[in-house]
Amino acid sequence: MPPQEAATGDGAAPQDRAVWIFGYGSLIWKPDFEFTSRRVGFIRGYCRRFWHGDNHYRGDKRTPGRVVTLLEDAEADTWGVAYEVRDEAASSSLERLWRRECLLGGYVCRSVQFYGREAGAATPALVYVATADNPLYLGPAEPALIAWQIVGCSGHSGRNLDYLLRLADFMRRCCPHVEDPHLFAIEAAAVVLTSAPGSPPH
Ligand code: BEZ
After folding, report:
1. pLDDT in tens, 80-105
2. Which atom of ligand 1 is nearest to the CA of 129?
3. If you measure from the C-alpha of residue 38 to the centroid of ligand 1, how many angstroms do you get, rounded to a whole number?
4. pLDDT of residue 87
5. pLDDT tens track for 4-21
6. Could you give the CA distance from residue 166 to residue 4 in angstroms, rounded to a whole number?
């Protein structure tokens, strides 16, 4: 079911309704839809991992890139950006995201609570998650191996390395108080590899 229907729920016309969409990967810097406001913050109960494969935007069929997905983890928060979309833009943005991420990419859309960086009440938001049953799913690996795969891939949106560096840059600039050992270990390994490329780690 397209998320617009899930988001409105009661069958009412979507006009005059606001929907929040939470991005924790490329949506942070490239939302590709119209929005009325943007807030940095986090969702609870998920951790972000470079465990999903991408054979189009940041990789290709032969060498899929690694992009982030979310895993349920009661102890974790994931930081990113939530976008408010309203009225006409809500229907068209959600329809486009549903087509691109769910129908073509195998992501599922989930409802979460979003907490803004500034204290305040939680806001319901939608988030796109790729699960382990997705054929592109790559799963866990050591940071050095993930970095090695990332450094060697690019796709229609550019280098997989730039995706990694942009995400790390966002976390450093906008959420400097947040620890993200998974992300920063992969970034550190990728930086080493770009200055001294070597053979794949074992
Ligand atoms: C994200 O940035 O949140 C995202 C982008 C594409 C698919 C799933 C999530």
Report:
1. 999 999 977 778 888 888 887 777 77
2. 8
3. 15
4. 78
5. 444 444 444 445 678 999
6. 29
| Matching residue, tokens 């907490």 | 115
Task: Give the CA angle between residues 63, 66, 72 to the nearest 5°.
Answer: 145
Using an 8 Å Cβ cutoff, are 143 and 185 in contact? yes
- For a mutational test of ligand 1's pocket, the pick from 101, 102, 131, 164, i.e. the residue with the most ligand atoms closer than 8 A to its C-beta, is 101
Contact assessment for residue 90 and residue 18, using Cβ atoms and an 8 Å cutoff: yes
Q: Which residue type is seen at 125?
A: A
Tokens at 142, concatenated: 């050591």
State how far the Cα of 35 lies from the Cα of 38, in Å rounded to an integer: 7
Site of tokens 């450094």: 151
Q: Judging by beta carbons within 10 Å of its beta carbon (0-12, 13-18, 19+), is residue 137 exposed, middle or buried?
A: middle
What does the chain come to in residues? 202
pTM score: 0.88
